[in-house]
Amino acid sequence: MTTELKNDRYLRALAKEPVDRTPIWMMRQAGRYLPEYREVRKEAGDFMSLCRNAELACEVTLQPLRRFPLDAAILFSDILTIPDAMGLGLYFAEGEGPKFERPLRDRQSVEAIGIPDPEDDLGYVMRAVSTIRRELKGEVPLIGFSGSPWTLATYMVEGGSSKNFSEVKKMMFSEPQTMHLLLEKLAESVTSYLNAQIANGAQSLMIFDTWGGVLSPRDYQEFSLRYMEQIISGLTREADGRKVPVTLFTKNGGQWLEFMAATGCDALGVDWTTNMGDARARVGDKVALQGNMDPSMLYASPERIREEVETILQSYGTGTGHVFNLGHGIHPGVNPEHAKAFIEAVTELSPKYHK
Ligand SMILES: Cc1c2[nH]c(c1CCC(=O)O)Cc1[nH]c(c(CCC(=O)O)c1C)Cc1[nH]c(c(CCC(=O)O)c1C)Cc1[nH]c(c(C)c1CCC(=O)O)C2
Q1: ipTM for the predicted complex
Q2: Which residue from 29, 77, 79 has its CB within 8 A of the most atoms of ligand 1, so it is best to mutate?
Q3: Strands, E, within 151-296: which ranges?
Q4: How far is the CA of 319 from the centre of ligand 1 (A)?
């Protein structure tokens, strides 16, 4: 396995080491906005078949890197692989997003689920990780990922995506011990899953807490943050003689950055509802920051996108510790030329902030 990286700007920025320009990657950079992705997806059939095929998962991971000068690759998979391996029966209904055949609604069903073995039950993810790492040939680092226990629990109890989270909150408030049992099992599963991704070649990790921001401040600490902290303390933090940085992203978590920074993570993902400069002032030298352009800005003209990139660079200010990204995943309807304009704006405008 190649351990020497040709481009380590992303890892350097996360370690707060000097860089020549701000590194960039995009959440959901492999996906439906790319015609070449839609082509492979059609060939694979459904989305999970694509995830289960290491060669095709590798192919779609590399697609955005062939088009754009990105500084990191992210494993092509999904956060819902763990609940699927727990036996909930994941499927994707066309145009409706993820669904589970057997959602968890009571103590009994939570007690019945086990901890998946990452090399066996989730072996297809590990094969994708090692295939991608090999095929990257040391060009850029590979990011592995998982959902946070709370975010996974929302899908598992709701049975899919949700608008008001009434089922999962019903369990949280009426049977808190059942919810904690579920979160405990998920934290254990996520820890071994992420450690297996590192063992198979992931060089950096991201934890997606997409739905932590729907909780009250107190419940966020008790039901989401605490379990992410537990995961971080159980992770292998070095591979190939290099630190494996962990980025924590709670969407709509701007008000909790100080608490998030105290979990032992290396970086925080920030969405566009928080000002980058304010975020930096609040976390100080504790962690690096990733973000934070509104993904919908990619519907604007390339000129307007460029202007927004400059605003965000200026807001973060000079020096290292910033990884440019969108504040959430790129939308399927975005014109790839606009994504290109966005990435080029970051590569062209950022060097002056690193002199
Ligand atoms: C909440 C969540 C999920 N999955 C994920 C999250 C956390 C990040 C976030 O908040 O967006 C994480 C995820 N999902 C996917 C990746 C791949 C890596 C990347 O390029 O970033 C990553 C990192 C591929 C995907 N995961 C999914 C797709 C679309 C599948 C398709 O091709 O039809 C992709 C490319 C499916 C998925 N998976 C999930 C949903 C809600 C959906 C449907 C949304 C949609 O249809 O756009 C759950």
Answers
A1: 0.92
A2: 79
A3: 204-209, 238-239, 242-243, 246-250, 267-269, 288-293
A4: 32
